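lol forgot to send this yesterday, sorry. struct tokens for the thing we talked abt
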């Protein structure tokens, strides 16, 4: 090998080494964004599951209150029939008092603003929890797509080092941008794209 060929070979190796450093930096940036999107995605997934459980519990409580209210209303209606058949004034007064108590209880089961446990308040809370669940689920889907873009970008950038095909690194860079856009959409505009 001549001195000229050796110099040319060294320059080529130095150029390849410089390109590999750039690719390694791209991979490091992709890995950083991947870690961020994975963390955000896991948080959104956990929030979605939590809010789903909360909504289910609130709807179950709503259903239990509705059943109790129906039972009490039925008892009050039955009491009215008993009241009509009663001949004794003391008995009529006792039955009327019981009917009034049942009616108040049924009204309380329907609306209890002081405790927030009436069926109206429970339905409102459950709908709010469902909305928060849907919000978290939408965010989760965006973060998952961002993570996929970052992972594919890492694979393509790694393949660039092995194959020397710089075009793969450019595609990896474009996937980085796509992942950043999906992460931003997940954070600030999760319902802009309907992904689920």
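and heres what i got for the seq, position by position
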């Amino acid at each position: 090998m001549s001195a000229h060929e050796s110099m040319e070979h060294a320059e080529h190796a130095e150029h390849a080494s410089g390109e590999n450093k750039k690719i390694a930096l791209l991979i490091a940036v992709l890995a950083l964004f991947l870690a961020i999107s994975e963390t955000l995605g896991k948080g959104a997934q956990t929030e979605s599951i939590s809010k789903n459980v909360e909504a289910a519990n609130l709807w179950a409580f709503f259903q239990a209150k509705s059943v109790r209210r129906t039972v009490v209303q039925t008892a009050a209606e039955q009491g009215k029939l008993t009241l009509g058949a009663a001949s004794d004034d003391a008995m009529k007064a006792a039955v009327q008092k019981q009917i009034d108590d049942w009616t108040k209880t049924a009204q309380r089961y329907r609306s209890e603003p002081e405790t927030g446990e009436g069926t109206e308040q429970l339905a409102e809370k459950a709908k709010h929890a469902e909305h928060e669940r849907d919000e978290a689920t939408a965010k989760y889907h965006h973060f998952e797509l961002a993570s996929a873009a970052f992972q594919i970008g890492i694979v393509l950038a790694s393949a660039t080092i092995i194959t020397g095909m710089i075009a793969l690194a450019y595609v990896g860079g474009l996937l980085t941008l796509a992942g950043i856009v999906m992460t931003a959409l997940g954070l600030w505009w999760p319902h802009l794209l309907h992904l689920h």
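Residues 24-188 form one domain. anyway ping me if u want another try
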